[in-house]
Amino acid sequence: MMKALLSTTTLALLAGLSLASAETPVERGEYLVRGIMGCGDCHTPRTNPPGPYLSGGNKQFAGQANSANITPDVETGIGGWSDEQIIRAMRDGKRPDGSTIGPPMPVRDYRGVSDDDMKAVVAFLRTVPPVKNKVARSEYKNPLPDSYGPPVTHVAAPAAGDKVALGGYLAGPLGHCMECHSPLKDGKADLEGQLGAGGQTFRTPKGEFVSANLTPTGLSRYTDDDLKKIITTGLRPDGTKIAGPMEVELYAHMTASDLDAVVVYLRSLPPKG
Ligand code: HEC
Ligand code: HEC
Fold first, then answer.
1. CA-proximal residue: ligand 2, atom 32 (nearest)
2. What's the rounded Cα separation, in Å, for the pair 156 and 115?
């Protein structure tokens, strides 16, 4: 009797411990989708107040694209798609019917998202309330590419303990900091020649903004703590606030270790400009 009681308590304790320490895929997915990946920025109706989470319908790309309903509604969202079909849409830009998903959807970045994180994103998407909202098809003036490259079959997560690799993964495939913070070349961010050099211009309803140089040349005036504060709150040490298209709310809840990795990565970039 005593023995049985003890082992039940031990089991309960162990279960409690593992729950406390390991993040579930749904939790990981929520951290990414509501945070650094910012799916809601494009996929939640930008009405005032905002429409139902991830239910789609925003005009993008000079009015040519409509962001999709990615809630689990079977008829008008992606509830009928398998996990593999959703992952293929994100990484390869292909719907189950074979059609190509247009450029506002950051497929180029998502090609680099790890298998585990992709599965976590899908696991979280399945938990979002389904919303019936039929979104009109996007109509592009120029034909879309047949593909964004060969199908992505496997992406490993950054090696454990490699802060620069983790920071590059957060600032690249997950958060696309670098897509905004590198100048354009032939209409695409020049991630090879001018990575992080800034100088890309954004025309927004609030005005025109130029992305900052995030290489050591641009950031030498900031301490690591300054930088972390800027990234998570938008506030610079001189009291000015980031006003452009950078959505600092997405980064407000980054874990301390992720934030640290981003800063270590930025400090490691080859200086530009
Ligand atoms: C910068 C804007 C933007 C971001 C960020 C974004 N998307 Fe998209 N996404 C779009 C647009 C626009 C479309 C529709 C494009 C079209 O119709 O050609 C789309 C299409 C999709 C589709 C295809 C759905 C369908 O029915 O065709 C899926 C799935 C999807 N997005 C998932 C996601 C997820 C998950 C995230 C976050 C991890 C995300 N998107 C982030 C803009 C975005
Ligand atoms: C949608 C485009 C976009 C994304 C994504 C983005 N930024 Fe920015 N960022 C900008 C722009 C534009 C500015 C300049 C804003 C201004 O002048 O008010 C800026 C400003 C900054 C600054 C202030 C630099 C200075 O000199 O004061 C830092 C630091 C920064 N971004 C880091 C990041 C990091 C790290 C990420 C990813 C986690 C990121 N940004 C994602 C567009 C972006």
1. 231
2. 7
Using the atom order of ligand 1, give the atom closest to the CA of residue 32: 38
Span from the CA of 233 to the centroid of ligand 1 (angstroms): 26
Q: How far is the CA of 244 from the centre of ligand 2 (A)?
A: 8
Best residue for ligand 2 mutational test, from 184, 206, 211, 267 (most atoms within 8 Å of Cβ): 211
Report all structural domains of the chain as residue ranges with CATH numbers, in order of start: 24-140+147-157 (1.10.760), 163-268 (1.10.760)
**Token pair 């025109």: residue:** 208
Confidence category of residue 204, pLDDT binned at 50, 70, 90: confident
pLDDT at 191 over 90: yes
The Cα-based distances of 142 to 15, 114, 116, 139 in angstroms read 55, 31, 34, 9
Q: What are the helix and strand counts (H, E) for the chain?
A: 11, 6
What is the number of the ligand closest to the CA of 209? 2
> What global pTM score does this model have?
0.92
157-166: long-range contacts (C-beta < 8 A, 24 or more apart)? 157/114, 157/115, 157/116, 157/117, 158/114, 163/260, 163/261, 163/264, 163/265, 164/261, 164/264, 164/265, 164/268, 166/258, 166/261, 166/265
Q: Which two tokens stand for residue 202?
A: 């954004």
- pLDDT tens by residue, 98-136: 999 999 999 999 999 999 999 999 999 999 999 999 999
pLDDT at 14 over 60: no
> CA-CA distance, 242 to 64, in Å (whole number)?
28
Confidence at residue 21, expressed as pLDDT on a 0 to 100 scale? 56
